[in-house]
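Need the bound structure for PBG, inputs here:
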Amino acid sequence: MAVFPITRLRRLRENPKVRQLVRETRVSVEDLVMPIFIFPGKKQKRSIKSMPGIFQLSPDLALKECENLLKIGISAVLLFGIPASKDPNATSGYAEDGVIQQTLQLIKKKLPEMLLICDVCLCDYTDHGHCGIVREEAGKKFIDNDPSLEVLSHIAGSMARAGADVIAPSDMMDGRVQVIRDELDAAGFKHLPILSYAVKYASSFYGPFREALQNQPAFGDRKSYQMDPANSREALLEAEQDIAEGADILMVKPALPYLDVLTKLRQEFSVPLAAYQVSGEYSMIKLAAQHGIGEGRSMVLESWTAMKRAGADIIVSYFARDYGKYL
Ligand code: PBG
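Answer from helper R.:
Posting the output first, comments after.
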């Protein structure tokens, strides 16, 4: 009697065609978003030591990268800027000729079919590397929430004018989705969706990204505004808040260590969900593959399948360019 269920389930596994037919989760190349790091210049490409295979690109090479992505069926990119200059107030984030603004105009003109998702945060553009405006009181520095909102809305508006298709705030300041929505609506961009990094943990898996973007905080850490890895009910509060403020898509970040959170959100909310396989997750798999510890392609495809199984609709991954073609 006990043997029967095992035999029955095996009948669905042994024949690869049957296995394929009963598969519950599928990943499609259309689910993927490729992040790109962009710095000012022409025909320039800089490697990132802690992320083998990923580069900082000048806008013209970012355009090339987009052409190649479209050829393999990836039609969405997430853009991060490394500006020529940084200051305490992130002003280069909303310069009309800023590096991302130029790139948006260029790609929009040459490749209108590419979906341009723009990361909106202060840390790309501040000299102190924090995601908000820093204030000092009684000898203590802290991140000042409300003045940060104004700068975020400037950056979002500027990206929209330059051609962004989706605005993706990643700063974790409270109330930013609302101010960005208001700014977009007032500036004639009612149609642009907001993809909010609603559930972003203060994670140790962002290490390589900070080399990629050169935005390591000059002091302290991001624990006052990013979430405690031990919390998951709090993720629901973050998500509720962002939906109430007008977020159209929510992101959970990092991905693999937080699949339970993704599932929780999937069960509670009907909005589309994205999972961000972050830099540290990329480098762990990449280095393991380079050292022959595992097979890159199958580790990546398995990790993407797990994200979709957990509830993700969208997968942001630095592996998109190299492994998207195997889907
Ligand atoms: C910053 C930002 C970070 C990432 C995306 N946007 C890093 C951080 O918060 O320190 C991480 C992405 C990655 O690690 O791949 N706003």
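Comments: The two ends are 39 Å apart (CA to CA). The pocket of PBG is lined by residues 119, 121, 123, 131, 170-171, 206, 209, 222, 278-279 (CB under 6 Å).
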